[in-house]
TrEMBL record:
Keywords: Metal-binding, Zinc. The active site is at residue 91. One of its GO terms (molecular function) is zinc ion binding. This is Tagatose-bisphosphate aldolase. The keyword Hydrolase does not apply. It comes from the Bacteria. The lineage of its organism: Bacteria, Katanobacteria.
Amino acid sequence: MNSQFSIYNELTMNTKEILLKAQKEGYAIGAFNAANIETLKAITLAAKKLNSPIIIEASKGEVDYIGKTQLVDLIKDYRNELNIPIILNLDHSESFEECEEAVNAGFDYIHFDGSKLPYDENLKIAKEIVKMCHAKGIIVEGEMDHIQGSSADHTKEKPDEVLDKTLYTDPKKAKIFVDETGIDTFAAFFGNLHGLYSTEKRLKLDVLEEIRNLLPNTFLSLHGGSGIDNKDIMTAIKIGKIVKININSEMRVAFKNALKRSLNETSEVAIYKITPGAIEEVQKIVEGKIKLFGSENRAS
Ligand SMILES: [Zn+2]
């Protein structure tokens, strides 16, 4: 095995093998955002309890908050202690420089999101990032059609009031984008808005099926995983062989609500005695997703 490819445990699998196993065996790995040490603890506790592989997501805001090298070291510690596959992913990075910094810090997986850039520029930078990452055995995810919404509480709005269906991924264009850039994972947009809405989000599964048919060997991810109809999620894993599902908003809302309750109910000032309720609520969300995605007992 190429040791440069090895990320979570030099003796077992590398990132690509972890994703290939999911694709072959028909389950998806939850990609959960770690906003702080408490959410990281909740995610890893859930994964260990259910013996599941996981992807830890760190967006620019989260990376700035925790620190790149600190995140890398924390993930290494959790891998060694828990002995389960944990992939560290830079989530929705919009610049080459930021991706390069994450690569140098030791991230395992880079999601370059050039979807807000002119297409040619997105293509050019994605190619450069692929070259840089593949030299070190790092997986690259690319995005072409901006996945709308934001990882927040939008429960005053219905998904259809926000969605612009004309922006859904064109499968033929997706194939050209993947072939030209050489990315490993493609982030498609077919109803999977970021955020939580007043009703469950529904997916346009025929778009996904066409993408899968045109790109049989590419890893596919599903962003905006919070608040999607469970049946649609299961069908997406089945027909689309989705290997990575991003979850953030449900965890954010659960954490905030539980923390608010704890703060209102206690006169305690020792912070570590105030946060366990919030950690527990986030852990419950993560456990539910692991079961839904079918990754329980797939850690080895
Ligand atoms: Zn996303």
